[in-house]
Amino acid sequence: MELFTRGKRRLVGSQDIPGELWCSVSSMIHLPPMLISSWTELLKKHGLLDKAKQPAPKKLIGGLTEKDSKDHLTWRFTGSSARVSMLMLDPKGKLDDISDAFYQTFSGNRVFIADIPAGAGASILTVLTTLAELRKQERIPRNPLTVVILAGELSEFSRGYANSMLHSVKKDLADQAITIELHILPWNALDAFSTSNLVRKMTLHSQNAAARMVILANFSGFLNSSGNWKKAKPQFEEIFRHSTDEIFSTAIWIEPGKNDVTSESGFFGKVTKWFKDSFSVFFGSGKNLDDVEFVSSTSQFKHPLKDHEVRSNLTVVRFDLPRVGGAE
Questions:
Q1: What is the number of other CB atoms lying within 10 angstroms of the CB of residue 150?
Q2: Burial of 28 from C-beta contacts in 10 A (0-12 / 13-18 / 19+)
Q3: Is residue 84 within 8 Å of 126, Cβ to Cβ?
Q4: Distance (Å, whole) CA 86 – CA 106
Q5: Can you give the three-state secondary structure of 140-192, one letter per residue?
Q6: How far apart are the first and last CA of the chain?
Q7: 111 in Cβ contact with 209 (< 8 Å)
Q8: Using CA atoms, how far apart are residues 14 and 281, in angstroms rounded to an integer?
Q9: Which tens digits make up the pLDDT trace of 9-62?
Q10: Which residue, 135, 232, 290, 318, is the most exposed by fewest CB within 10 angstroms?
Q11: Distance (Å, whole) CA 116 – CA 93
Q12: 204: Cβ contacts below 8 Å, ≥ 6 apart
């Protein structure tokens, strides 16, 4: 059976989104309040708050040095967060019900999520704080939820930022019956041994989980250059293969909606072809691999430190991972 049935009524429709997260008049996304608070406090701690109010440099894709990691935290964190917010809320109904995967996966019980590469934690922080705000505004049920997080990231500085912010929101999440168990480790997508260690940790920490999700975000800049996608494919195949299970498992891959991602020969074209070629053997006749296609949306979001709005473009593909032993 699938994680959820396509084509049914949205679990959280546009009419259900509170004003704290979406302004229907201006058609503008607002980042979750507790996310903004956590991010701005971290900027203050590192003396970056004023810098974050300045225009961002062009072609900034991050890196391993402290400066690169701080620059990405300062100028790219909100954009990464806005794409995840747009995906979860999907106020324009453009994303093929992908948002439902989040609400079913994180409806309650004990669930596991792998965030790779985690960066400073924008993806998982946005997921958690969006869920918390929807619970606070009584838009989704407030069932007890334990989220076991495994964050894989190569930059030690970004790992530190993610650790700080995730711990800073723990109490506010607990107020909405969300408990988190956090595990952060180094991960190099081009290294087989690093990936094997990641997979071991995924297997260990997802035990007794009712559902499992893998989030991959903002990876195209790195993987689309220097032949890195070809080098990384064996590692992704290992991650996806070991993410199949007797529990519901899905992978959500999120990228900016750029031409080198969305064009016919772009990054997501390579990714979807790889998935269909690599995993078709696991799917029975009841599964339609033609459904594995990327979709796009765009929206404005209110930057928390600037007076103007920012345009955010999103492209995403959802992979429903097969159960062990194939389709029933």
A1: 24
A2: middle
A3: yes
A4: 17
A5: CCCCCEEEEEEEECCCHHHHHHHHHHHHHCHHHHHHCCEEEEEEEECCCCCCH
A6: 7
A7: yes
A8: 37
A9: 678 888 899 999 999 888 999 999 999 999 999 999 999 999 999 988 887 766
A10: 290
A11: 26
A12: none
DSSP 213-271: EEEEES-HHHHTSTTHHHHHHHHHHHHHHHT--SSEEEEEEEEE--HHHHSTTSHHHHH
Per DSSP, 113 falls in state E
Q: Which residue has the tokens 């019956």?
A: 177
Contacting residues for 229 by C-beta, under 8 A, at least 6 apart: 223, 267, 270
Interval 140-192: pLDDT, tens: 999 999 999 999 999 999 999 999 999 999 999 999 999 999 999 999 999 99
* Tokens describing residue 203: 């297997």
Tokens for 71?
């620059």
Strands 178-185, 211-217: pairing is unpaired
Q: At what angle do helices 267-279 and 228-242 cross, to 10 degrees?
A: 40
User: Tokens 């606070």 label which residue?
Assistant: 136
Rounded distance, CA 63 to CA 60, Å? 9
CB of 154 closer than 8 Å to CB of 112: no
CA angle at 161 for the pair 172 and 88, rounded to the nearest 5°: 55
What are 241's two structure tokens? 């293969």
For residue 152, which phi and psi values (nearest 5 degrees)? -110, 125
Token pair listed for 180: 């988190």
% of residues, the chain, pLDDT over 90: 67
263 φ, ψ (degrees, to nearest 5): -65, 165
- The pairing of strands 109-115 and 211-217 is parallel
Prediction pTM value: 0.91
Q: Which helix (H) or strand (E) holds 281?
A: none
Q: How far apart are CA 180 and CA 170, in angstroms?
A: 7
Collect all residues with Cβ–Cβ distance below 8 Å to 34 and sequence separation of at least 6.
Answer: 129, 132, 133, 169, 172, 173
Contact 63, 156 (CB under 8 A): no
